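Colleagues,

For the teaching module next term, I've prepared a clean inverse folding example: a structure given as tokens, and then the sequence designed for it. I'd like students to try predicting residues themselves before seeing the answer, so please don't circulate the second half yet.
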């Protein structure tokens, strides 16, 4: 089985994010970059599927600048077999990313595409669904359990108020949720082996897809500081505050 795992480079969740003075984006100096945590879960699940089946290939793909090689090498050190970097310097929206991944998937012809349900920087939660629609493949989002047997997939997915179990045949697209697994750490032998594994670079413009963004971020702003609370003397006063100040009743 060949499994394609798209990954994204994002700021470390522990990094303090600063907004640029003009609100055009975030300050990238002194930021530590990591694999999107949901994508890291996808890598781990792909490796577990490969190990359970006793063979196969896990292929990573990322879309960005040359510096994104670092995160691909981390995924290779975890155990992925090879990686593809689609080089592009300009920011891309979810639709353009999905279009690129359609081209990569068409060239690779994977049995399964596993990716995180969303990236923690923009929280769009759009690429997996758009990719599945463009490829005409069955999909399961927010997966908390994945079982594969004889080209049949059973996925337990998290929905509002509980769990839903669905089944379909491969090939397919699955997006991963937090409770699916606990990603492994890259071992020292894995890090050494990763240096020799294939990492292919492809110019984004060579794929012949429309990369013009359809979504524009007008401005960014830090969330307002939380205000201190106050004590309410009675139920009647609470109702009055909820009605006149909070305006929720």
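(Answer key — instructors only)
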């Amino acid at each position: 089985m060949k499994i394609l795992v798209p990954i994204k480079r994002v700021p470390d969740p522990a990094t303090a994010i600063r907004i640029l003075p003009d609100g055009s984006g975030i300050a990238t100096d002194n930021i530590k970059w990591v694999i999107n945590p949901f994508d890291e879960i996808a890598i781990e699940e792909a490796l577990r599927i490969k190990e359970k089946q006793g063979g196969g290939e896990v292929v990573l793909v990322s879309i960005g600048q040359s510096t994104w090689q670092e995160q691909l090498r981390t995924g290779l050190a975890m155990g992925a077999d090879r990686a593809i970097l689609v080089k592009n310097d300009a920011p891309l929206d979810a639709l353009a990313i999905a279009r690129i991944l359609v081209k990569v998937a068409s060239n690779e012809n994977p049995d399964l595409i596993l990716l995180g349900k969303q990236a923690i920087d923009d929280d769009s939660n759009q690429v997996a669904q758009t990719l599945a629609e463009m490829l005409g493949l069955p999909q399961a989002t927010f997966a908390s359990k994945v079982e594969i047997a004889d080209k049949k997939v059973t996925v337990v997915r998290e929905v509002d108020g509980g769990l839903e179990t669905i089944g379909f045949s491969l090939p397919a697209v699955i997006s991963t949720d937090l409770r699916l697994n606990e990603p492994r750490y890259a071992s020292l032998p894995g890090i050494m082996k990763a240096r020799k594994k294939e990492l292919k670079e492809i110019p984004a413009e060579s794929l012949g897809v429309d990369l013009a963004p359809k979504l524009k971020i007008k401005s960014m702003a830090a969330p307002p500081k939380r205000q201190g609370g106050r004590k309410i003397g009675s139920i009647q006063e609470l109702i009055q505050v909820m009605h006149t100040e909070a305006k929720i009743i």
